[in-house]
Amino acid sequence: MISTMSAAAVAVWLGTVVTILSRSHADRNVYPSAGVLFVHVLEREYFKGEFPPYPKSGDASNDPITFNTNLMGYPDRPGWLRYIQRTPHSDGVLYGSPTAEHVGKPTVIEITAYNRRTFETARHNLVINIMATEEFPLSYQAEFYIKNMNVEEMLASEVLGDFLGAVKNVWQPERLNAINITSALDRGGRVPLPINNLKEGVYVMVGADVAFSSCLREVESPHNQLRCSQEMEPVISCDKKFRAQFHIDWCKISLVDINKVVPVYITRPDPGTGILPEFGEYNPPSESLKSRDYFSDFIITLAVPSAVALVLFFILGYTMCCRREGVEKRNMQTPDIQLVHHSSIQKSTKELRSMSKNREISWPLSTLPVFNPLSGEVVPPIHPDNYETTSMPLMQTQTNLQNQITIPQQRPSGDNYVMSTFRRLEVNGIPEERKVAEALNL
């Protein structure tokens, strides 16, 4: 935790914005070890004392305070160091696991606290001096996935101590320490739904100096591997020692023996002296640029395609207009018998068309005028000229007419005759007697 520093604060008032220039800029040094989990809590209560006292309205002890952490001279933190603060009313936490490559390099972290109600700010420096130890890293490392914890809950000292105690009961090592803690969201996990108090999940890596216990190796059995492939919970005998407080996903446990891991070395080229080799004297281009004439380029780009298009146009015009054979040349190349055959077909077609224009068609009785032989009157047809007859039969029987002629008609079964009624019609002023004669000849 950050210890309280006795420092006089000088407040610079700029309207409603207050900036704290404090002697608490004095560096605070911490000494974590490489390969061991580093946790540093930023307490809100401590930073409240850094703000100058003046009359405030409301509950000043519950002001929202947020923190910004960055490497001095850079906008972000080092790659191994993470920061989390769930709400402005909770403490911030810096955590991570430094590696051996950071040993001997002091890391200065700038911590800026913001009071979101009064717009006051306070800044402190945290110097992290990473130490190298021969005991770390430990040879056997196991990573557990705890489903019912968030990362800030797991970083609490009492919760982390309870978990390490449960692991020690199962593993029975002489030395045991937490190596790293990672949120499941940093491993590609999804944010849980805000129901049933679901947690994000956290990965906890621990190290020990003895081989893995039989309980931890139960997850490697074929039976449990089959159950994990079927998305079923494996059967672990020591799960009950964790179940009271920690729900562990045993299918995601990782057991690593670093003594058996083959190191992979990446060869890097040796850095040079920083001096370029000798390539001769550098001759920069002239400051005065000569103008260039693009007329020839324009002619080549435009004239050549135009000439080709013109030649093709003349060839097409000559082919379409000057190479036509004509009717006379076609007839000269056609045999005489074929010409006579086509001529006879053409004459017959013309003759049929002329005959079709002159043929007479007898009009339907419903459209012809009716002639009265006694009085000589011409009775108009039943329907006028503008009557629609497209949907009616052409031969329609007219009834209820006074001027009718009764014609006897022979029955098919005997010599007796029956009387049939016909109308006396005229076509172009000539009585149509042909209908009556045909009926008498039946």
Automatic annotation (TrEMBL):
Any Pfam family matching the protein: Sarcoglycan_2_C
GO annotations of cellular component type: cytoskeleton; dendrite; Golgi apparatus; sarcoglycan complex; sarcolemma
Segment forming the signal sequence: 1-26
Top-level taxon: Eukaryota
Intracellular or extracellular location(s): Cell membrane, Sarcolemma; Cell projection, Dendrite; Cytoplasm, Cytoskeleton; Golgi apparatus
Sorted UniProt keywords: Cell membrane, Cell projection, Cytoplasm, Cytoskeleton, Glycoprotein, Golgi apparatus, Membrane, Signal, Transmembrane, Transmembrane helix, Ubl conjugation
InterPro entries hit by this protein: Cadg, Cadherin-like_sf, Sarcoglycan_alpha/epsilon, Sarcoglycan_C, Sarcoglycan_N
GO function term, MF aspect, one: calcium ion binding
Dystroglycan-type cadherin-like domain mapped to chain residues: 29-137
TM regions (residue ranges): 298-321
Family per similarity comment: Belongs to the sarcoglycan alpha/epsilon family.
Function description: Component of the sarcoglycan complex, a subcomplex of the dystrophin-glycoprotein complex which forms a link between the F-actin cytoskeleton and the extracellular matrix.
Name of the protein this chain belongs to: Epsilon-sarcoglycan
Organism per entry: Monopterus albus
